[in-house]
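[SOLVED] Need 3D model of a two-part complex

Original post:
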Amino acid sequence: MARQMTGAKMVVQALKDQGVDTVFGYPGGAVLPIYDEIFQQNDIRHILVRHEQGAVHAAEGYARSTGKPGVVLVTSGPGATNAVTGMADALLDSIPLVVLTGQVPTFMIGSDAFQEADTVGITRPCTKHNWLVRDTDALSGVLHEAFHVATAGRPGPVLIDIPKDVQFATGSYAPPVKGGPKRYQPQVKGDIETITELVEALETAKKPILYTGGGVINSGDAASQLLRELVDATNTPITSTLMGLGAYPGSGKNWLGMLGMHGLYEANMAMHDCDLMICIGARFDDRITGRIDAFSPHSRKAHIDIDPSSINKVVHTDIPIVGDVAHVLEDLLKIWKARGRKTDREALDRWWKQIDEWRAVNCLTYKTSDQVIKPQYALQRLEELTRGHDRYITTEVGQHQMWAAQFLTFDEPKRWMTSGGLGTMGYGFPASIGVQMAHRDSLVINVAGEASWLMNMQEMGTAVQFRLPVKQFILNNERLGMVRQWQELLHGERYSHSWSEALPDFVKLAEAFGAKGILCTDPKDLDDAIMEMIEYDGPVIFDCLVEKHENCFPMIPSGEPHNKMLLGEVSTKDAIKEGGAVLV
Amino acid sequence: MSALQIKKGSTKHSAYNLRPTFSDVIETHTLAVLVDNEAGVLARVIGLFSGRGYNIESLTVAEVDHTGHLSRITIVTRGTPQVIEQIKAQLGRIVPVHRVHDLTVEGPSVERELALLKVTGAGDKRVEALRLADIFRANVVDSTLDSFVFEITGAPEKIDAFADLMRPLGLLEMARTGVAALSRGATT
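Solution:
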């Protein structure tokens, strides 16, 4: 029975019917009717951010730490354009978001009205799908379809642009239909014949490796469980992309660490030398592959992905399987068990012996100091002192992000939120707010660099207003560390604009917002300072002054394959050749 | 790169996939894309091609099922086999896209295009233009004392050939519809 209500009421009703409990947003002229409805109910919490970009990243943090879609509500024009970066970020990292934007009334669209922008036009390439709703009767259908599209198949951001007159007008509301609309139903079951082919390959592989990604986490907790079962049962080494950390426990015995440009030596060497690569929910990103024509030259490659366009996009796949990770892994395990749980144990022992030799290189070694805090040391202490906590980590983008991925351990999925594909500086702080909203009693830490952090520092107001005890762990080197590193390696140590003068006093900044600030400059004080941060019940800015010129290693120089890694300060001169210099 | 290994009796690969995926050979393919006829759907398709750097040689779009609100977009594109496969997979991801047919590999198909050509001239040239139009089965749809507008239908190559002949005879302007294509036989 279709109920009659205004478009604005439909929005709130649809959010309730979709199980939404939190919305991140910022009001404005074109969404006032929806905000009026939000004011008159108590089921949905609205978190007022300080900038629309912050709303989208917060919703991303919420989504990634819960597995549910994040919801954003912003106004037309600048509200929508400010949300663009967040949507592009969510698209590249496959994060489900439903973004609602107000629009000028339908009769004014196209007249260059106040705060009018072609929102569906601008956001078409940075959403999975978007809608402009011109008719209140169509609104509830679109709202429900939006949640389905955002979460079904490969997740991603969607946007609904709702003109103000559509919000005011009355129409009929239809509740959600089970299973979602017919027209978008991605295939979740993999082809059994191909899965069997993969099992055969696994049974005879002498040097197999699992290369997993964010798709395992997106597939749900069952996928992580099945992955662990597969690894333990077959004794296959496993590495993961930045996005996939936590799907297999970082403390697990088969874990090789992250792979890729700043991945671990053992992970990259094993990828290069393997004879069977099983890529699960990852996409052969350029940060992962390095030089394509020398990428893992002697391996057969299997690729499990729910998105058919990921397969054969970058690297030729011998065993392509389109399907949801959990569904495919379930079938794979079933078939492998039914065929007698075979692996080539002798060969695997040799393979592990080789891997242990690579592990012995100890690629994360760095020069310690008792004078100055090394960023790696700061993260090791943070790891040590927070290990027992119910902990969630977000990061900004740059050196600190890579060190966090190298030095922190993630034993569960959905505990690690970072901007992988788009590499958005300014992601981590608002994301930590979204995570904390979803997990009020957990310890949420944003590992940041001072430059990234400043990009969305206005969200301190949000953290304080909503009493969100997010910890901002800033590794402050007064540099754009990763840019500086590349300028050192690639541009003759000409450090063009890669440092900021006039940095704020972060302690005073925290206090100005009504939060707590902690400054730490001496390695001896670090443990106490970190404990003080953890124990403080409220938002903290932790200004950790670290070594200014530390470089992030290991590193695959651009244009080089996995087995040409740089392991430390030595031999970095001319490491990047002309062909690699054009790459980013 | 070697070709995909295909097992006997397997149903999961089309014959198309027998070609090595990462070959350098540039191929021309005609794709038929069935979409919901809704606002912005053409922009999504075109945006995909421009955003990812794919070629469009020809593009035709019109509603083909009024009650079902379905439009058919026919695209002629060029690329390596890997690029063509990417284009098809990327098109398939667009929410309002129902089906993507690669008419070039799914068996024999017919392709037709319509063109209008304005030819001006007098005397022998005018007579010759009319004679050639007759040979090509082009119709005169407008005529003045010193001009014709010809309507011609056919495969793109036929239209190219006719246009080449008209050029020295006073071809002033031409409009082409782009390719419409259907598979031959009883199936869709």
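Edit: The first strand of chain B starts at residue 27 and ends at 36.
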